[in-house]
Amino acid sequence: MKRFDLSLYLVLDPALCRPLGMVETARLAVAGGVTMVQLRDKGASPAQMIETGRALKAALADSGVSLIVNDDVEAAVAIGADGLHVGQDDMEVQTARQLIGPDMILGLSVETEALAARVDPAMVDYVGAGPVFTTATKPGHKPPIGMDGLARLIAATSLPAVAIGGLKVEHVATSLAAGAAGLAVVSAICGQPDPRTAALKLSQAIRKARS
Amino acid sequence: MKRFDLSLYLVLDPALCRPLGMVETARLAVAGGVTMVQLRDKGASPAQMIETGRALKAALADSGVSLIVNDDVEAAVAIGADGLHVGQDDMEVQTARQLIGPDMILGLSVETEALAARVDPAMVDYVGAGPVFTTATKPGHKPPIGMDGLARLIAATSLPAVAIGGLKVEHVATSLAAGAAGLAVVSAICGQPDPRTAALKLSQAIRKARS
């Protein structure tokens, strides 16, 4: 049984994290209640990905927070990450699962109800559902689906879903009400003056919405 | 026990193979006696690698010839190739082995005696040893080691070695005498007017040198 907690899922962005760096941002965010961390750096070389990932792994050790690597399966395995996240334009999930083996977490981005319905729960452990709102963080993203679209998308799969795309603290209650197991954020934490406090406000809102 | 035959190892080059294409070149070369085929296409997209690789796999089906993919582990696994070949500048062999699992063939390029001595036979199945001579096929290659260098390099490892780098039919006997299990060629087959005949001459020379 794989253990991971999608409640507050930080996707690191190297540009937005520049003030403190990705590792320090992640460390502070975890202190504020982040439950999963994804390293996403499409511009990094394999060697840079591995170096940053190893530093992140060391920073997260003993925190119980899962480290997920976006798209780069070589880096995910070299780092000893807890999981891999792939998009629809990245490798096929069958290939990803074969490469990482049965024990690593595999996440898949889905942007439509039809894609969500097609995800194989034997291959994939969770879906990233969105973008809920339009966001500047991921240029060229798919059309936003809104909260109603999020609810429909999540209903189309048996897998736990983390909502993503322009989400802020005021969207916590509606995202969870739409069936999300948690919220993935980038700019709501990365580049905030105090990532710990930013994460804390989000995690408190999540706790409150669930109570 | 993995079975592969390094005797005559064709490394496909997309530019040199343009007249007939990589798949048809490989098919003809196998008819002429090639025993292993490597798909090497540093400029291809992942999707192109997978498409070409699947076509190659279909063309080689039932031939007993192993299909090896250069560097691209996602493609190697997606294709269902027999093996992966990595260079010193590619991923670490531990990572490669972890990604492809225990059953796929793993080859590693070594350019010096010191590198050859350091190869872990628990991780790697064969080494590519060279470049023996200077070659235009691989721009920016390491300094050529010559036949004496080849013999020293091969002596430094317990693994089977395939010699590579500017090898032609007149180098078959000396390469095998240096301890090579076989010869890897690119331009001696790719782009030759008749790849089947070119392969046949090489395979006959190998058979003769061994008798």
TrEMBL record, chains A, B:
Residues 8-189 form the Thiamine phosphate synthase/TenI domain. Keywords: Magnesium, Metal-binding, Thiamine biosynthesis, Transferase. CDD domains: TMP_TenI. Its EC number is 2.5.1.3. Its cofactor is Mg(2+). Mg(2+) binds at D71, D90. Binds 1 Mg(2+) ion per subunit. This is Thiamine-phosphate synthase. The lineage of its organism: Bacteria, Pseudomonadati, Pseudomonadota, Alphaproteobacteria, Hyphomicrobiales. The gene is thiE.
